[in-house]
What we know:
The complex is a heterotrimer of chains A (368), B (444) and C (311). Chain A is mainly α and 368 residues long. Helix content of chain A is 58%, strand content 3%. Chain A has 17 helices and 5 strands. The termini of chain A are far apart. Chain B is globular, with a radius of gyration of 21 Å. Among the domains of chain B are: 123-280, Rossmann fold (3-Layer(aba) Sandwich); 373-443, no CATH class. By secondary structure, chain B is of the alpha/beta class. Chain B has 14 helices and 17 strands. In chain B, 57% of the residues are buried. Chains in contact: A-B, A-C, B-C. Chains A and C meet through strand 1 of A and strand 2 and helix 5 of C.
Amino acid sequence: MNKLITVSPSPHIYGKDSVSRLMYGVIIALIPALIVSVVMYGAGAIIVVMVSVASCLLFEYLIQKYILKSEIRITDGSAIVTGMLLAFNLPSNLPWWIIIIGALIAIGIGKMTFGGLGNNPFNPALVGRVFLLISFPGAMTIFPKAQGWNTPYVIPAGEIDTYTGATPLSLIKNGIKSGKGVSELLETSGLNYNDLFFGNIGGSLGEIAAFALILGLLFLLIRKIITWHIPVAVIASVFIASGILWLFSFEGNQAIMNSMGMKLPVIQFKDAEGVLKMFHMADPLFHILTGGVMLGAIFMATDYVTSPMTPRGMIIYGSLIGIITVAIRVFGSYPEGISFAILVMNGFTPLINRYVKPKRFGKEIKNG
Amino acid sequence: MLKTFSKGGIHPPENKLSAGLGIETLPLPKNVTIPLSQHLGVPAKPVVNRGDEVKAGQIIAKGDGFVSANIHSSVSGKVTKIDTETDISGYKRPCIFIETAGDEWLDGIDKTDVLKTETSLSPEEIIAKVQESGIVGMGGATFPSHVKLSVPRGKKAEFLLINGVECEPYLTADHALMLAKGEEIMVGIRIMMKALKVNKAIIGIENNKSDAIEHLKAIAAKYNNIEVCPLKVKYPQGGEKQLIKAVLNREVPSGGLPVDIGAVVFNVGTVFAVYEAVQKNKPLVERIITVTGKELKKPSNFCVRIGTPVSAFIEAAGGMPENTGKIISGGPMMGKAVINASVPVIKGSSGILLLPPEESKRKEILPCIRCAKCVSVCPMGLEPYLLMPLSQNNMFDRLEENKVLDCIECGSCSFICPANRPLLDYIRLGKTSVGKIIRSRKSS
Amino acid sequence: MNQIIIYTIASLSILGAVSAIILYFVAQKFKVYEDPRIDEVEAALPSANCGGCGYAGCRNFAEALVKSDNFDGLFCPVGGNKTMEAIAKILGREAVAQDPLVAVLRCNGACEFRPKTTNYDGATTCAIEAALYGGDTGCQYGCLGHGDCVEVCNFDALHMDPVTGLPVVDDLKCTACGACVKACPRNLFELRKRQKKERKIYVACMNEDKGGLAKKYCAVACIGCAKCVKVCPYDAITMNNNLAFIDSEKCRLCRKCVTECPTNAIIEVGFPPRKEPQAEATVQAAQTENTSQDIVSAKKEDISTNLNKEE
Lengths: 368, 444, 311
């Protein structure tokens, strides 16, 4: 039988890409950020990632075997990617059982209820993360200070203040609420852009080091795993949207006065007691370097399944994610908003796919 | 910065095993099987009978209708039968079987290699000559050339583009032809310019054939208005629409013809055939073909008579390798797999490619992960991921809406798909169905 | 407290009454006249929406029935004569009785009779394989075995036999809607008249090649020897392009052609076993396969009543 020659429709040769190759490419791209998080948070980071990845794999296996009764495809790497991304969105001291719940929600509800890889409308890791954020707001918003191997996984009772600290975003948000200016806040907390860029800050595992995430982005772009459209659109729109608001804030006003001698109006508003207040806001560079913007733009928003298919669609999708993120950060009650922004735009992806078509080759002939 | 087309495209491994090799002429085959459908359109009507003696170059079947072409005997000998035989299409179709005896050519055919540069024929006479000689597009589309040369009334050709791109991996037939017959190609171009009444001809060649580019540039310097345009390597640049976009930066309108934007495209092989027909009075009975494959001992470029069984020149290239999994007529991207090695060569076969078994099997089909790679490589700006399920579910309205008819079947989407989905298989099916629906709508 | 309840009830009632009045007048104003018989006819149809009648769905067919003056060319193959009579009663017309039909597969080229000559390795659809080439066996007329017909069958009447690689028609479930006839790229399905006890005799081959060639690639191909034509007492068999065809209108199920056929290309279905044992294993195979169908057909239930019951 093997001697028979094969006949099949063209093409007869195929590219090297395969689903698992792409997924493992994403995993490789995540490694720099993983290393930074281990350096900064020590054993806790390893435990969180291991628990998350292992439970995602386990749940995927169990669901495929016993519920869907389909072929088992856990080796394609997609569950590992989901597990790593979920872990990257968690604080490094999160109790292990919460991580397992998160993994169950991510894989079980976020992915498998819709039929598995390729059919899920929402990014599974984000579904898990947002579920945990709403269900365990306490545990999900205590972030350990970056102290390397000295950072304990289980924080001893009564020493919470010694080991944990606020993320830069919540620091600024709460500070502004209490009526302080941004420059004053940055000074007192000792935050500088170097720390933001290299990850010496409190936050979720994977979001802290912008440079490691950018390394990952370069790898993804060189290997052609993703295109530039979504990351650039998200980061640029966060920068532009926060930049425009910043120009009309107290801080932006000061900066422009000092550098160019121009004077722009400052937005003022009345608070609950009717006192006129200045609008305070951090600068756009701070906004793109903090929180999950880099992680979200490079790894979460670019998730194949839940992002649009056409370049134009990707740019629309990315820009709206950026705008919603800034809106939540500046006007919302949460200090960080990219997870919600991505989930909201995931919901619009089918609509974007339906109406934003690629530019076709050749013009339409009339009366054709 | 070299020119190329802007949208989509892929870079398959080139594997041009027989690049730079000359053209070998094969000994005459003992028997030839000449299919009557070697062109688009209806099969030609045989004008010989069983038992007739024919000479090489003698017309044996007449084109039936406008997009049909004449067929000539490629050898001299006796017609043994007119019967059906499985040809490259994979179906049994009518063929004329000729047993070779000697190599006697019809009177008036100049078989020498002497270059004849001037022609006194008028444009109409040239087109008539092309039609009589049964010339079709040699790049694989097999569209009768006289139809392309007759520019429809109300339209005007400005440029003659010559396709020397050969973007398909493995194939080197056009490359070898350009190196060996540069002067003849230039004369052929001049003849076609005269027939089309255009003042400008551009030869598009991909950058991986730098020797051919240099060679043709040197010859083109002697002629006015013929230019060689080197192009960046990218598949499917040999597609008519992509070539026009790359060279002239004009886009053929959706559903339109190249002549709508003033361009007419011919393959270099066709140009050479036109030269031979007009200057040498020699109809299309031979072509250059690449025989190649990684397992093959001696990948080569052969000059073969139409109707020779494929096995004859696989033999000449070192014999059929033990482990052959697939025999492809044409290139690996758009070629057609054939059922065995006894199928005859036709006018449109540019190569024979042998693939080992491990390269001939498709991989397991996985669910679509919506990576959008098919969208980004589609040179026509279509959405293969969407067209495939629409075709599976017979949603013809939406297929038409999403421009399935623009598909050029280049196979880039199937090539790139990481989930190994048979995108082009279904798109082709949908395209055929939608085409039928539109035709019936137009006729009613 | 009481007052609140009273006010609530009163205001809601008044609101409801006002809306009802508005709605009534709006409905009167925008009422579109539609022949009430369309609904009645539609109710009488089997609502399978299979398109077997040539219309997009039962509703469209009902409209066509009501609009036209007679039933020329209008027939619901699924409901059959009973349905058409019921509709005729509603519309006050004469129903033209048509013979109930059943689909048969005109190919018996199971894997054992028709060895593969190439491996097909493309999308598993008959339509795509047929567009590509003559098929993975030497016969370019035969069944490709990917089950495009099974896919389109709305009545669960077609199943792939994993052993032979051919689809099998379930006579009881088949409504002759013609979906498989349209789906098969090889035109292998034929709608034949139903005969008593679901018996049928047909040429299970569509091969138009010359005898030797046909036989070379398929052991059970019709070789066009025309022996059946000679033996048939009712002139039911015709030869065209090396292929025999048995007209189900004329065939009287005498079974003479079955024994005459040298390649067993003619198949009998639904008959009791013959007295003298047959030499050909194939015929026996066909019979054993069909004994089960015998039992089923013994129930002798009319397909249409069966379907109507399911409604």
